[in-house]
Amino acid sequence: MRLITLALAALLLLIQFPLWTGKGGWLRVADMEAQVAQAHQKNMELKARNAKLESEVRDLKDGTGAVEERARYELGMVKQNEIFVQIVRKGQLPPMTETPAATAAPH
Predict the structure, then answer these.
(1) Residue 51: in which H helix or E strand, if any?
(2) Is 66 domain-assigned?
(3) Which of 25, 50, 63, 100 is the most buried (most CB within 10 A)?
(4) Number of domains the chain contains
(5) pLDDT at residue 37 above 50?
(6) pLDDT, tens digit, for every residue of 87-100?
(7) What is the DSSP secondary structure assignment for residue 81, as one 8-state letter?
(8) Is 21 within the bounds of a domain?
(9) What residues make up the domain containing 43?
(10) Neighbour-count burial for 19-55, b at 16+ CB within 10 Å, e otherwise
(11) 96 in a domain, yes or no?
């Protein structure tokens, strides 16, 4: 009787083995579900990024506010009759501004 019980237990384990580790096994399914969740997360991040870029493109096409903002912050441009004030904190280097002396070739 003990031999039959051991044989049936061994058969049960052999039947269970493909269920856990086989091509369509539970471990593989769990791994695939994790990959799908990760892909969904990446897609959501990319959709948010695309929406932000689309909004920025729309602003650049339709309005002048975005163009003015970029000109001010990226190029350092100011309007006519406007005074530019820059506050530099202790230990902070001022942004590099290109001057004619800096671009001149050394003699």
Answers:
(1) helix 26-62
(2) yes
(3) 25
(4) 1
(5) yes
(6) 888 887 766 655 54
(7) T
(8) yes
(9) 13-81
(10) eeeeeeeeeeeeeeeeeeeeeeeeeeeeeeeeeeeee
(11) no
